[in-house]
Design goal:
The protein is mostly helical and 230 residues long. Helices cover 71% and strands 3% of the residues. The radius of gyration is 19 Å and the shape is globular.
Length: 230
């Protein structure tokens, strides 16, 4: 590959990594607000707003897995988790620093909004780490099995399995830590998983579109990956 194209591929990889990290960190900061969504009145989803950026992270790791390979996808996940813990360390320090009387946001409000974040991030990151590595492993299993064909198959099969594991694990941990009551466990599990399944199915055309752009720009064959390390 030409040096100019390789530099462009590397820049795009950095942009994708930045979007991934931002989505992951933000999801852990806003998770305490819940809302409902009832599309066409068919089902009432009761979910945390923290779940909204999550489908973006799985779409990005699937794009990176398809174009840059398993190693680069795993690297982005690890860096994203480090960024999440680092952001929580900053919030922890900000929480213990006393607010002055004229502060627009006092200690009580700040603690109510961000005080539970470290425990939530611990639960979320344990679940997310497990789910993302499973997602990447399943994605590449199907990629090898289908010889790089049927992108929709590995995209949806890997995401469905990993999203269920992520949703189940994080809800078990949050309920065990006392952050969420067990009484809403099953409703949140069903709503969260179904929401992620619907979004994963809807993002398949986006994955095809972005993969098509990459293959056209960098003259990649089906199943061929860009090696940034060579």
């Amino acid at each position: 590959m030409e040096l100019s194209k390789k530099l462009l591929a590397y820049k795009i990889y950095l942009v994708l990594a930045a979007l991934f990290i931002t989505s992951l960190v933000v999801s852990n900061l806003i998770f305490q607000k819940f809302f409902y969504w009832s599309p066409f009145g068919l089902f009432r989803f009761e979910i945390s707003v923290g779940i909204l950026p999550y489908p973006i992270t799985f779409l990005i790791t699937d794009i990176i897995s398809e174009i840059y390979g398993k190693k680069k996808a795993n690297q982005v996940v690890v860096v994203g988790i480090f960024a999440s813990f680092f952001s929580m360390a900053i919030i922890y320090v900000a929480n213990i620093v006393p607010a002055i009387d004229s502060s627009p946001v006092g200690d009580e409000i700040f603690t109510k909004v961000f005080g539970l974040s470290p425990l939530a991030v611990l639960a979320s990151m344990l679940a997310y780490l497990f789910a993302q590595f499973i997602d990447i492993r399943i994605f590449h299993f199907w990629k090898r099995l289908t010889q790089g064909k049927h992108l929709w198959l590995r995209n949806n099969f890997s995401t469905f399995a990993s999203q269920f594991i992520d949703t189940l694990t994080v809800l078990v941990l949050l309920s065990s830590f006392g952050i969420l009551p067990w009484s809403i466990f099953y409703s949140l599990l069903l709503s969260g998983f179904l929401f992620k399944v619907v979004v994963a199915a809807l993002d398949t055309p986006l994955l095809y579109f972005f993969v098509w752009l990459f293959r056209k720009k960098f003259q990649l064959k089906v199943g061929e990956e860009i090696n940034l390390d060579s």
